[in-house]
Design brief:
The protein has 187 residues and is mainly β. The protein is built from 1 helix and 13 strands, in the order ββββββββββαβββ. Bound molecules: protoporphyrin IX containing FE.
């Protein structure tokens, strides 16, 4: 598969383009008295939107994405996330910027890893990381702070698996909020 779409080289991000569906997701989320486990299904759409130039010297190839996640137990959407992935061909740095309705925004960075037909994308951010940070509302900073974010995606052909960890400070303790799923490309 070519990484070039409409004349733009998306490098490792080309593997993500399309609409993905998966129904084997598991969410582990905080509760005042412990944790809840939520089996889920979801759709994630990645769209190639061209490139952007910064300060006339950096060029990023960019995908826009939208992830909609529903609980299996009641078919209600319980996570809705949107953002961008970027790739700088000169430095081979990848970025994920995301926002969620709770009032949390993340700009995570990392490096891609291509192993034959397998593409691995790893990004991370932390509140005390000077390069890749997390911005959140005053309420979230005080009551449900996201201190660290780690995201790993592995793509092989039309199968994608991801695992992400959000290290939270909530209910007076540190909690590892995690999500993972395996999805298939439907177009
Ligand atoms: C598939 C992805 C995700 C799912 C399904 C999910 C689901 C959940 C659920 C079920 C809760 C418990 C509170 C509630 O019932 O609404 C929760 C809490 C939370 N999530 Fe997520 N989440 C996801 C990704 C993220 C990401 C990417 C972030 C931040 C970068 C995040 C930040 C938080 C925070 C700060 C809370 C604590 C707020 C609270 O429990 O009241 N989550 N999430």
């Amino acid at each position: 598969m070519s990484n070039i779409i409409d004349g733009v080289d998306y490098g490792p991000l080309a593997a993500l383009v399309g609409t993905w569906k998966g129904d084997k997701g598991m969410d582990i989320a905080p509760e005042p008295d412990g944790k809840e486990e939520n089996p889920f299904y979801e759709t994630i759409m990645f769209e190639a939107i061209g490139d952007v130039t910064n300060a006339e010297s950096q060029t990023l190839a960019v995908l826009r994405y939208h992830q909609v996640v529903s609980r299996k137990s009641d078919d209600q959407v319980f996570h809705n996330e949107t953002g961008y992935w970027g790739w700088d061909s000169k430095t081979d740095v990848i970025t994920q910027s995301l926002t969620i309705p709770r009032g949390v925004c993340v700009l995570a960075g990392g490096k891609p890893n291509m192993k034959g037909h397998v593409t691995v994308l790893d990004v991370q951010a932390a509140v005390d990381n000077k390069d890749w940070g997390i911005i959140q509302s005053p309420f979230m900073q005080d009551n449900a702070r996201t201190n660290e974010f780690y995201h790993n995606i592995t793509i092989e052909g039309d199968t994608m698996s991801y695992f992400e960890t959000m290290v939270l400070d909530i209910y007076g303790k540190t909690f590892e909020h995690t999500d993972g799923n395996t999805l298939s490309r439907s177009n």
